Amino acid sequence: MKVIIPLAGKGTRLRPQTYHTPKPLLHVGGRPVMSYILDDLKALGVEEIVFITGYLKERIEAYIGTEYPEFRSHFIEQPVQNGTAGAVKLAQPFIDEDVLIIYVDTLFDADLSLTRRVGEDVAGVIWVKEVEDYQRFGVVIHDSNRMMRRIVEKPKDPISKLANIGLYYIRDWRLFFQGVDHTLKSAPGPSGEFYITDAFQYMIDHGSNILVEEVEGWYDAGQVGTLIETNRHLLEHGRALRPTSSHNARIHDPVRIEHGVELEDAEVGPNVTLESGCVIRGSSLRDCILGEGVRVERSRLHDSLIGENSVIRGINGSVSLAANSLLEGDA
Q: Fewer Cβ atoms within 10 Å of its own Cβ: the N or the C terminal residue of the chain?
């Protein structure tokens, strides 16, 4: 099985962090978002991945080459942001067997080994998650055998609460790319883009069965608030780390405080990640993610995302700050 990972987006909802760091390389739970997915693929036995790149592509390529040399990686730039169908079309020359397609602005608890077990009569799998705010998503409608019938974008009525999460397995890759070609020759969607889900509908209309499978968990990493919520989930499920020593510090779990962090007259947690080299003095933090080498003094921060090597003094409230920044106030 091969894998396609589209990465060309600019991550505008995560600015200013994404002015210098591509969204998949932002840290949550002390690691880049995309590393969790790449580790799952390694455990699954995947050997070859096609990355569709664009914005800050050099940093993506350098990270994967250094941290995941075991993959045969192909990098293809998407020069025009014409939608998900346009992105996967660029990968077609490398696909000659079944394929997994993953979007990495979310994390998920899904059993990817299902791809090895589905019956021969199943042409693909689309993973979903039941949500209450179904009007925000494309929702999947299936029959009594859990086979997909169609996807409806942002429905007004609760025809389904199963949100499409951007994780797909395609066994019949030939028919799938026929569907992609058909989609790209049709009129674009309301946003002027072409959607991969229309290719799935093409497959269904041509007699394919696409299994609808629900994930146990789905965690958004596409904006500051949800990234911090995802950080809490990761800390509560294996990524927590307590310091071996601290000076006059109060700590409220869950936290991840890496080696080399200095705490002095500080209150940290819950839901705080401090990467190595951070210095926290005379300050309190809750619901925060701080990159390497951040210094915080005389501040009370909450719901904040701070890029590496930044300095914050005398600030109370919520802050979103890019790497190598300085922010000072009168608090």
A: C
